[in-house]
């Protein structure tokens, strides 16, 4: 992840995909496939569904590459957004606003305990420093939502906090993060 | 939609990206993004702010069949939009000229397909005894979905023991059992539950207690072993 050798050029890759270069898509798959699958797996909590999501994401990357607009964000971000939103859509209908039962609870992966470990993972991404400034409750709301794809109700169950509190924490965290990242 | 402050818009965008909006509100925002450039900019900003959190999901190696699935789906698609722009190879004259050739080729191919026997062997594995290197079995595939294990001789099997057939792809974590094999008898395995065969895939026969390995992994001595070689 933090290897400095020739970073993968996502933008160039999308341009090549837009030109119909299948090898570019395969290079993206080889390079980013496991990470994208990890993201999908964490949200879908099921291997087969996660592979379906990554399959659909690569089809969408291929067909949409020509419409990628660099002015709207990084190519890497675009690829991850597609994958995450497909994953979120896949679970939205089935369990978004229902409270998790015990079996689901066991399936929700726990977060790494310390953000220090995370910083090592992801280099010096500023978002982690900003997250560290949040109280544990609001911080966990953001992580459970973004990484685990949890709904308000699921987060409330996980944290043992009232639903209203979770909603307020998320709003407050978003505001704090925006200010911290400005 | 009622007027909203910048902050409310930004929070809405942030929750859209987090994925915490209730389904109907999420759909409404997704719809609104088509036309509302301010909301779109706010969503784009959150996508980029939160992107690095994706690193928290541990990478997971895709199964070997996923890329094949993607490729098959791509084959069913039209080429990407930009490729449809007229390029030199898309000029009408060129196509008119090549269509006739293509038609002729497909007639020939159709005829060949109708008259050729089923697809030729793609992989072959010779399983040899590790001690003597004497070949004992041959694995061959007529397609990548079925494999045949053919005996080259008949070995005696100790009382109460069985020969168990295993395979392991170069990147698999552990071998997978393909079942119990009787000495001197051919054995066919449908590979539906496994990824497609690949070069260097390992095949082996181990000596296990009658009924097969109790652990689901090879426990007894390897009697015959070999790797898949692609036949051109």
CA radius of gyration of chain A is: 18 Å
Unreliable spans of chain B are none
Task: Using the alpha-carbon principal axes, give the shape of chain A.
Answer: globular
Strand percentage of chain A lies at: under 5%
Number of helices of chain A: 10
Compute the number of strand runs of chain A: 0
The helicity of chain A comes to over 70%
Structural class of chain B: alpha+beta
Q: What's the multimeric state? A: heterodimer
Q: What is the number of helices of chain B?
A: 5
Q: How large is the radius of gyration of chain B?
A: 29 Å
- CATH H-tier superfamily of the largest domain in chain A: RNA polymerase sigma factor, region 2, helix turn helix motif
Structural class of chain A: mainly alpha
Biggest interface pair, residues each?
A-B, 69 and 45 residues
Describe the sheet with the most strands of chain B: 5 strands, antiparallel
Number of domains of chain A: 2
Which strand-content bin applies to the residues of chain B?
15-25%
Q: Major sheet of chain A: size, sense and barrel closure?
A: none
Walk me through what this model shows:
The complex is a heterodimer of chains A (182) and B (232). Chain A has 182 residues and is mainly α. Chain A has 2 domains: 1-95, RNA polymerase sigma factor, region 2, helix turn helix motif (Rna Polymerase Sigma Factor, Chain: A, Orthogonal Bundle), CATH 1.10.1740.10; 98-182, Winged helix-like DNA-binding domain superfamily/Winged helix DNA-binding domain (Arc Repressor Mutant, subunit A, Orthogonal Bundle), CATH 1.10.10. Chain A is 71% helix and 0% strand. In chain A, helix 1 packs across helix 2 (22-44). Chain A is globular and about 50 Å long. Chain A starts with 9 loop residues before the first helix and ends with a helix. Chain B has 232 residues and is α+β, with helices and mostly antiparallel strands. Among the domains of chain B are: 6-56, no CATH class; 123-230, Immunoglobulin-like (Sandwich), CATH 2.60.40. Chain B is built from 5 helices and 9 strands. Chain B has helices spanning 6-18, 23-32, 37-50, 66-75, 92-115, and strands at 123-128, 135-141, 146-151, 161-168, 176-181, 187-190, 202-209, 222-227, 229-230. In chain B, the strands form 2 sheets. In chain B, strands 6-3-2-1-9 form a 5-stranded antiparallel β-sheet, with no helix packed on it. At the A-B interface, helix 2, helix 3, helix 4, helix 8 and helix 10 of A face helix 1, helix 3 and helix 4 of B.
